[in-house]
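Extended Data, panel c. Modelled sequence:
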Amino acid sequence: MTDAGAQAGWAKSRDGDEAEERLAALIHDLQTPLAVITGFCELLERQPGQLSEEQAKEYLGRVAAAAGELRDILDGQRGPRPPGA
């Protein structure tokens, strides 16, 4: 293998490792807000008549906040958007 070929292979491996690390970090960051969404949705589903309107609104607010956190995390993973996009 030539020097250039070895360097290209090493760079590709390094890029792959970096991509795997970014993916692992992204998965980790998404787990907490997803658990919040899942948990409160399950509570709303299992106890529809047992929750006060205030409790239900609180739970839905937490779901909305966690969904916003997911959106922010995913938006942070994207590159800059072109103007008008």
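Helices lie at 3-46, 53-77. This feature is highlighted in the accompanying rendering.
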